Amino acid sequence: MSIQWFPGHMNSARRKAAESMEKVDMVIEVVDARLPQASCNPMIEQLRNARQRPCLKILNKTDMADPVATQAWIDYYNSQKGVTAVALSCKKPSDVARVPKLAIQVAPHRGTALKPLRMMIMGIPNVGKSTLMNALLKKRVAAVGDEPAVTKTQQRLYLGNNMVLTDTPGMLWPKIEHPSDGLMLAASHAVGSNALIEEEVATFLADLLLQRYPQLLKARYGFNTEGMDGVAVVEGVAAKRGFRLKGGEYDFEKAAHTFLQDYRSGALGRISLETPQSRAELLATYQST
Ligand code: GDP
After folding, report:
1. What pLDDT shows up at residue 191?
2. Which of 63, 96, 126 for a ligand 1 pocket mutation test, highest count of atoms within 8 Å of Cβ?
3. Average model confidence (pLDDT) across the chain
4. pTM above the 0.95 mark?
5. Any residues with Cβ below 6 Å from ligand 1, and which?
6. CB–CB of 240/288 below 8 Å?
7. Cβ contacts of residue 225 below 8 Å, gap of 6+?
8. Is the omega angle on the peptide bond into residue 36 within 30 degrees of 0, that is, cis?
């Protein structure tokens, strides 16, 4: 299975993003700290580089991510030209309060009455753009939702301290370069999902957790994970929760949903789906095939 978006969306998003990029001094790119590369659209970097716009890269939802992996990503991004990376929880007011100062540091030539700092928040759906914007403005100006594509209307927002924020076209669809990117996004609910793909996504997530966080599976469900595969984990959730169909067999669909909910709600613990190292390994696999 591979999860993809229509190229038509991509082209019009690219055009709008390129137009907006001309009118701003810097970009605040929001990604999901649990899957920073899978939740970023490389188009943002291409457009920024073409216009030489610096970037404050916010690894958001850091409260749900593995702190060790997050630190590795921060180091990784901070070594890139024109990028300042920071891990935040945009739900935390004290974290958001740091953003204006960081933005000025990224573009120190702006932020005066004569040359206000013009900023644009960008990112794929569901990474927390609206949450950040609302928190920056300290009031609700954009719809916050758990489904993609809630940020639609064009707005110019004055933040004070000679800072201006544009919120359109902040939204770009994810560019899913590898099937595992789609699965990671679906697991984190950054793309719409349905019951059919939930079973595959849950099995993928279970396999990943078996490799990287077996202790969290043990802590949550009491599994001895030795010899288990992803399917066995989801079946184990069905067994633990008593999810059975009329004939007595496991209700895999219900278990898959519950397992994904446990991950998305944070009940399983702080989990990062990728690290700079796992990303490099993934790319090496694709290059060698
Ligand atoms: P947008 O589509 O990029 O504008 O994303 P939203 O701002 O609508 O946020 C998507 C979901 O992520 C919402 O359910 C938010 O409550 C949640 N969210 C945003 N920021 C954080 C955060 O720092 N931590 C956690 N745990 N959830 C967050």
Report:
1. 61
2. 126
3. 88
4. no
5. 60-61, 63-64, 89-91, 123, 125-131, 144-146, 150-151
6. no
7. 210, 214, 217, 218, 233
8. no
Angle at 102 between CA 100 and CA 104, to 5 degrees: 70
Residue 30 DSSP SS3: strand
What pLDDT sits at residue 153? 47
This model of the complex carries an ipTM of: 0.99
- Residue 162: name the closest of 95, 98, 121, 110 by CA: 110
Give me the mean pLDDT over the 118-122 stretch: 93
Protein residue with least CA distance to atom 25, ligand 1: 61
Does residue 6 carry a pLDDT above 90?
Answer: no
Q: Which atom of ligand 1 is nearest to the CA of 148?
A: 2
Cα of 27 vs centre of ligand 1, distance in Å, is 19
- Atom 19 (ligand 1) nearest CA: 128
- Tell me the three state secondary structure of residue 80: coil
CB atoms within 10 A of CB 138: 11
Mean pLDDT of 13-17: 80
For residue 60, report the distance from its CA to the centre of ligand 1, in Å: 8
Name the pLDDT band for 149 (thresholds 50, 70, 90).
very low
Please, is 63 exposed, middle or buried when counting C-beta atoms within 10 Å of its C-beta (0-12, 13-18, 19+)? middle
